[in-house]
Known about the structure:
The complex is a heterodimer of chains A (654) and B (824).
Chain A: H1 9-26, E1 31-35, H2 37-46, H3 49-54, E2 57-62, E3 74-80, H4 84-100, E4 106-112, H5 117-126, E5 132-136, E6 142-145, E7 148-150, H6 156-162, H7 167-183, E8 188-192, H8 194-213, H9 221-225, E9 232-239, H10 244-248, H11 254-261, E10 264-265, E11 268-272, H12 273-276, H13 283-286, E12 298-302, H14 308-314, H15 318-342, H16 346-381, H17 383-396, H18 405-413, H19 418-431, H20 437-451, H21 455-464, H22 488-494, H23 520-529, H24 531-538, H25 556-560, E13 566-570, H26 575-585, E14 595-601, H27 606-621, E15 626-631, H28 637-642
Parallel strand pairs in A: 1-2, 1-3, 3-4, 4-5, 7-15, 8-9, 9-14, 14-15
Antiparallel strand pairs in A: 6-7, 8-13, 10-11, 11-12
Chain B: E1 8-11, E2 14-23, E3 35-39, E4 46-50, H1 60-64, E5 67-71, E6 77-82, E7 88-93, E8 99-103, E9 107-111, E10 118-122, H2 127-130, E11 132-138, E12 141-146, E13 151-154, E14 163-164, E15 173-179, E16 190-195, E17 198-202, E18 207-209, E19 217-222, E20 228-233, E21 237-242, E22 248-253, E23 262-266, E24 270-274, E25 278-282, E26 288-292, E27 298-301, E28 306-309, E29 313-319, H3 322-328, H4 335-347, H5 352-359, H6 364-377, H7 381-397, H8 404-420, H9 430-436, H10 438-447, H11 451-461, H12 466-479, H13 484-495, H14 503-512, H15 516-523, H16 529-538, H17 542-552, H18 555-568, H19 571-579, H20 582-595, H21 597-607, H22 610-623, H23 627-641, H24 648-671, H25 680-689, H26 693-702, H27 707-721, H28 724-731, H29 741-749, H30 753-758, H31 768-777, H32 781-790, H33 794-803, H34 807-823
Antiparallel strand pairs in B: 1-2, 2-29, 3-4, 4-5, 5-6, 7-8, 8-9, 9-10, 11-12, 12-13, 13-14, 15-16, 16-17, 17-18, 19-20, 20-21, 21-22, 23-24, 24-25, 25-26, 27-28, 28-29
Helix pairs in contact in B: 3-6, 4-5, 4-6, 4-7, 6-7, 6-8, 7-8, 10-11, 12-13, 12-14, 13-15, 14-15, 16-17, 17-18, 20-21, 21-22, 22-23, 23-24, 25-26, 25-27, 27-29, 31-32, 32-33, 32-34, 33-34
Amino acid sequence: MAPHASLNTSDISEKARRDLLQLLEGVRGKKNLVLEKALAGPLNLLVKFSTLQEYGVDKPFFLENDNVDSSQRNIVFLVRGEKAKTVMAVANQIKRLRNKGQIDHEFSIFWVPRRTMVSDQILEEAGVLGEANVTECPLYFIPLAEDLLSLELDDCLSDLYLRKDPTSVYLSAKALMLLQQKHGVFPRIIGKGDNAKRLADLLIRMRTELTASESSNGGGTSFLGLTPSSSIDSLIIIDREVDFPTVLLTQLTYEGLIDEVFGIQANQTEVDSSIVGAAPQQPSQNAGSASVAPQALKRKIAIDSKDTLYNTLSDSNFAIVGNLLNKVARRLQSSYESRQIASKSTAELREFVAKLPGYQAEQASLKLHTSLAEEIIKHTRSELFTRPLEVQQNIMSGADPTTQHDTIEELIDRAIPLSTILRLLCLESCTNAGMRAKDLENFKRAVLHGYGQQHLLTLSSLEKMGLLTTRSSGLGGAAAKPGSVTNYTSVRRSLRLWDDEVNEADPNDISYVFSGYASLSVRLVQSIVQKHYLAALVRPAGQQAAAAAQGWRLFEDAAKNIRGATFDETQTGEEKAVKARQMLNGAGHADSGKTVVVFFLGGVCRAEIAALRFVAKKLAEGGGKRLLICTTAIVKGDGVVGAAIETGRFGTGV
Amino acid sequence: MSKPTANWEKVGDRFYRKVQLYTAVFDQDLELENYIVVGAPYSGAVAIYRDEEKLHSYRGTQAAKSSIDIYSCAGKLIRRINWDKGSIKGLGWSEDEKLLVVTEDGTVRCYFDLQGDFVPFTLGHGAEEYGVQSCRFWSSGFVALLGNNHLISVSRYDEPRPKLLAIPPTDPVVSWSIIPPAYSLSRSVEAILAIGKTVYVVDATDAEDRELPAGPFRHISVSPKGEFLAFYTEDGKVWVVSGDWTEKLSEYDSRAKTVPRDMQWCGSNAVALAWEDEVHLVGPKGAATKFYYDAWVHLIADMDGIRLLTNDICEYIQKVPDVTEEVFRLGSTSPAPVLLEAAEQLEKKSPKADDLIQLIRLNLAEAVDTCVKAAGHEFNIHWQKQLLKAASFGKSVLDLYNSDDFVDMCETLRVLNAVRFYEIGLPLSYDQFKRLTPDKLIERLINRHEYFLALRISDYLHLPTDKIYVRWASQKVRVSTEDEESICRLIVQKLHGKQGVSFEEIARSAYDEGRARLATELLNYEPRAGKQVPLLLGMKEDTIALDKAIESGDTDLIFHVLLHLRKKLPLAGFFRTINSRPVATALVESTALHQDPELLKDLYYQDDRRLDGSNLLISEALNQLDTNSRIEKLKLAAKLLQDSRDHTLQFKAIDETQRLLKMQDAFEKDLGPGFAGLSINETMFKLIKLGNMKRAQKVQSEFKVTEKTYWWIRLRALVVKRDWNELEEISKTRKSPIGWEPFFNEILSAGNTRLASNFIPKCTTLPVSDRIEMWVKCGLVVKAGEEALKAKDRNSLEVLKSKATGSAVHEIDRMIGQLSSPRR
């Protein structure tokens, strides 16, 4: 990769793995491992189950199942300690095992990612603190791909926007601090959104606090570590709240659709084995899954960049995936045949045989993706998919939303899944600064009638999250505080959010991922890192701006029309140190190879990732910066509204 | 300059040296013979305490007050601890210079900073009853012997947990000693008791008779690393036994009539016996040498040697280190002495220097190394310099030499010489310094209030200095008599801009001293909000603590404070506190949701958040098991909202829910289970599916369900029921609020093409092409053709022709013909 690629995601996973295994090693002998379900995915990404076994793990259990037994003396809990609920669960299980009292158990608790005072307090009150060895396992960022780090905080969305619990902001800050300590301070922190601002403030505060607790010795590595980084250009923080519509839309990239249709958890998707065939022929695809349940009718498939075919497909618009698959199939076919004819000499034959496993793997992957794609096509052909998509496209292109109401009502009458309906309603509300009171009331009634009265709670949660609101009765923008809602009509123009001439096969703009809509969040990133491009796009004939614009320059007005705080902070270091750094790295080529860290607070969807990768590719072509995407979790529309949906029902008998 | 070998003594084939560290140590009036003297490891402080069992002359009431005095090795009084807490049965030091005082009743005081601050704990296990007889200390713990021969061990002082060891026989103990856990075979402390004629080894689990019937042994001593044991027998002999008890290594006959007062190991290779003014040093194989003093002498064993203390002098006896021996021993043939000689010649500007260098040219690097190391072991500054000079000369001749060791040694020696200075009185040997580590040395200096020296050494060795500043300031806060403002100013002025200084710690000591205002003031300078919280909580500044926790952004900390407040404050006060702080409220809400819904109810009530309160009741209703209690909860929820005008929709919906639940109950009675929990639409759906049109319509009118919705539901339900007749009936009606296309689609996807086709002609609003498509979907190409014909769409006909089979082809042909003919 680039010679300056000092920010390497594989280092992070390597370190996380080492930390974890070291902790496991610290518990002598065989042990049973009790996992929180949410941690199974990340754990699986880091270590194979066979490795865990080498480190003495006998059987894994899920905390939620509450079924850990006394088969081993050592019991290790690997859980997140931020929530009182999980801590209580741990305490209760320890008590349960203790009361059974057959064996004198040795308990260890590894809190991820840190030991909290509250957990100590709760364990103490439960009377088990003295019996457990408590340590922390600093598992923050989990690399999902070379350019993608995730904290895998699944509850982040509901915590942050529904319950207004800023734990995830704090954890994000911690994680980013670790990056800063390793690679130097982000020279610039730019961002959009109230929570993003909070995160930036926290980062700046943590820096001063860290400097304060650093020892004042000269020449330590830590001292240099807190000067502005030479390998990182800036940090861009985008608050999910700024751009809910993007995640509410149906994702149209291949990976996005896999997520929509089958769901992806920590680079794994579970597909009915009738679709892709059972029997995982490759051990690498299935080994290491920490699932306790025996292999059922579902098959787990690793969805990651190790699969070269998948790499070419994942970020393409689904419309062209069929073609791509066709091409690959034909190429494989022809090369296979030509080889057979050409394989005359033994040398060639040997070469061919050597390549055979590669071909077989590719063949298998081709087969897999063809069947997946077929299944997805089946799905996309159904009205359940096309009608909502139509509504989405109309809303995003700026059509009067009231024209869509009939369709939405009909969809409710047809009892399509609630999440789809809520996505549409929220989409309308978000893009139009709320719904007309009367319309909203009607829809609320329709939803209650259609899906059950318990959704009174769902609707009120959505309102709390700011996803489904009444339009303020004032006369439009004048009455509303600036920055409290996004004015899409103006932003659509100033950032060119809708692209009529979208080209899906050979994309020229990020709008390809949604077949027309260019997501606001990515446009915001572009307005910082790709100013020229975006300026030219928005005002083709307009005057070109000054070359060295930084931060929000040129797009301040656009940013003003979007909800949430806008900020742009620079972090400087001591001049001497900065100079020393520059000397060390050699002056000159300022931008090349530097990394821009894009942090999505509250989650990012796969289509956005695809769009950002597109941006990154363009940047790389210009010999410029690299993009590193970081997020609290990967989300999709169903997850966003799912955070609000009440799962209880009146009548448990059914 | 005296020769470096002047103080060497040969014991057997080894050399020992006696280094005079300090003179004029104690006041001549001090009757050292009447005192118990114990010294801390690594040349640490010395504590003396008047031995209660000895008579002493009466010197008026003043002197009769007993005290424990802590001196430096050079005799500087560091601290006097007045003692009136009863008879001291154990006095000892830990590795980190904590002074332990064990009284007869089993109370232990751990003085942790040389300045009289202590932490007390008690031994228990019957110590009070039987009384402590004596104690033996090791680097991080001690064992106490009780009157009933029980042994209690304490293995750490930060969290002391006295443990009873196995029970030995109750015969009187003649003498005893311990093997520290780090060096014992069982990895826990072992006590060696001389009882009767034999020796018992006691560990945590059993007391074993070693059957060494040569006793009684008057003294037992264990070498610093536990590899040897020394016994002094009744008949004046010293036995040395290997640590695993397998081998008797040597025997020495002291020929003394009286039993020596003390027997200690000198490093790991010699045993020192002390009588009143005479010391025997017994080396391997029973070789020995004797030293005579003109005053009472005390032995203080250390890890690599032994300190001797009299009123006048403080001496250090150790085995001459190998490198030193190599350099200075007469007749040494190694290259190092030659190098030393060469350097001396060079000073005299004699050409012999070069000759000598050439002589050892091949081994020069080795010689330099030896000189550097020997310099480290040298106490005499003159010889340190000579050796370093020699090393420096030697390495200048070498082409390639890594000077790191040399530089390190120069630095180390500077530090060692500084702390050996009599005003400091820490006569560390090189090995002790390496074992102690510079950090601990700084710690010792801080404990002695030698802040300036500690700072200088830290700077010199590139160690963190923040702790020194903090400790200085804490001490300042504690003892200064100035007014609080000027103290604060002074401290802030000094510490301003120093990194890593924890004002929180200073504030804490101010608070402990009772200066709350000063503490608050100092705390404001603490940059880490999170750090301030625990102290603030301790100071009962709850709201400030909460604010600081919120400021830090750490939700864990906020939680912590909240839990604390929740326990402390009455509910109303608690709510008032969190009320103005949205983050705190949010956190309380999100935890209480799962753990304490009642709290949440109160919170919502107090804040007049009716909607939230009602939602909470709804979710409770969801958890109820039967309809009546559900309705009860819903009623409560509705009641909360009834006065409010903003929530009419919510209110109505709750009302609807109650009615729906009642209706569903009724349906279940009549039609069987499965209704509870369904939505209104689903209820109608189910009713229609069961053929209960009337009731479905009743639901529709009851809840004012729109016609459109009703039609959709009826359509779907009928299709699922496969009630084609009913659908056919509907097809005869004139108008549908949802159009007829849905009928076509739904019925078609259910597979009934015949019925589906019935609806095609009714879809008049659709364009022709769509209708053609619909016909085709039903497999009725001819009908499609007719449609096309009506619309005069020739192209579609052509397309249809390709799809047609059998007779349909002709039909289509005919139609194409019809279309073309009029045109001609």
